[in-house]
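Example 9 (inverse folding). The structure is encoded as follows.
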């Protein structure tokens, strides 16, 4: 084994309150799991930002190493699928919430929960995608499974300049869909058009209460925002359309009516990345490796160090981050 000490983003809560700081640990302190991974990159997802800033009940036990996602190289394995030197990705499964996570130089992870890094992706690119991008791909798969095809009509992406939204716009654009991006950042229009949006609309148009059925516009929707935005997106979805709901950046409520479902046959497809079965993850990652333009991925990325992660998490929750943040760990 190479490194025995490593740095990690350590979250703690006690009599003195909550703290998030970088500290050194010894490999021997890691709780047991069958694969030891030297992590090269992690990332900041929305959920990581909630955990690191102690907003929202993400972390279930303290102390915790933050980070739901990691990518790197297997150092040791007792799992039959993995051997030293294999390159792997980890997303979700409660890591960084109930078990020590991946904003760290080393992690012990469960072999059953790892996905092989698909060619031609590097660990940095995989974390540029991260849970946000892999969730965007799960949304695209949901649309495809409901029969949505390029050329069928406009696809709306909400929260478009965020992590899920940016990757969804780039993927759908590359696959030939006509994408309308909804964003609250006026200066993100060029960025979204370069990623693949044909049109950019102000998210304020979708944020306020509207009629239960509105002018039919979207063949499909990828929604990272929830709440009133999702309700309006449903109300504007064309007859027989499908809406993939994966997020709650505006809110976790759904203050709407059943009208789009019972009068227009609209489908609301829920998308979860955290406990998605391994086969579905592998399919999503294969498709990401095939369909995502890596130049466009690079244009969404900002690279930071572990020491910058606490400040960046607060910026992300304040809505000041465009695209995806990768965290270099070695
Ligand atoms: P980001 O913070 O990167 O992006 C969220 C985007 O939503 C922002 O960039 C902003 O885009 C928009 N937004 C922020 N606040 C509001 C608001 N009050 N009203 C309307 N829009 C808003 O987060 P991610 O992309 O990483 O995640 C997006 C959502 O998806 C989160 O809720 C997250 O928890 C969820 N998620 C769910 C997963 C699952 O398994 N189901 C997996 C991954 C994420 P803009 O400025 O362009 O409008």
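The amino acid assigned to each position is listed next.
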């Amino acid at each position: 084994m190479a490194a025995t000490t490593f740095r990690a983003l350590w979250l703690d809560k006690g009599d003195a309150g909550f703290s998030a700081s970088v500290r050194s640990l010894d490999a021997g302190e890691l709780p047991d799991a069958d694969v030891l991974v030297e992590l090269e990159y992690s990332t900041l997802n929305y959920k990581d930002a909630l955990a690191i800033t102690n907003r929202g009940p993400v972390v279930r036990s303290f102390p915790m190493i933050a980070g739901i996602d990691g990518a790197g190289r297997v150092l040791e394995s007792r799992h039959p699928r993995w051997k030293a030197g294999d390159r792997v990705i980890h997303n979700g499964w409660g890591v960084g919430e109930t078990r020590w996570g991946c904003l760290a130089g080393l992690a012990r992870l469960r072999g059953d929960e790892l996905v092989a890094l698909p060619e031609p992706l590097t660990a940095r690119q995989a974390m540029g995608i991260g849970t946000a991008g892999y969730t965007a791909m799960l949304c695209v798969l949901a649309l495809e499974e409901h029969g949505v095809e390029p050329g069928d009509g406009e696809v709306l992406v909400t929260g478009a300049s965020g992590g899920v939204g940016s990757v969804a716009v780039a993927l759908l654009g590359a696959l030939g869909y006509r994408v309308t991006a909804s964003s609250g950042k006026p200066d993100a229009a060029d960025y979204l058009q370069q990623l693949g949006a044909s049109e950019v609309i102000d998210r304020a148009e979708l944020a306020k209460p509207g009629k239960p059925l509105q002018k039919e516009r979207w063949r499909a929707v990828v929604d990272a925002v929830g709440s009133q935005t999702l309700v309006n997106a449903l109300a504007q979805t064309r007859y027989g359309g499908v809406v993939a709901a994966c997020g709650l950046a505006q809110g976790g409520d759904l203050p709407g009516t059943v009208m789009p479902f019972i009068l227009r046959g609209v489908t609301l497809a829920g998308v979860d990345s955290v406990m998605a079965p391994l086969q579905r993850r592998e399919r999503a990652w294969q498709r990401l490796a095939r369909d995502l333009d890596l130049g466009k991925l690079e244009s969404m990325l900002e690279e930071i160090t572990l020491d910058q992660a606490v400040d960046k998490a607060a910026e992300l929750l304040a809505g000041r981050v465009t695209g995806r943040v990768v965290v270099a760990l070695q």
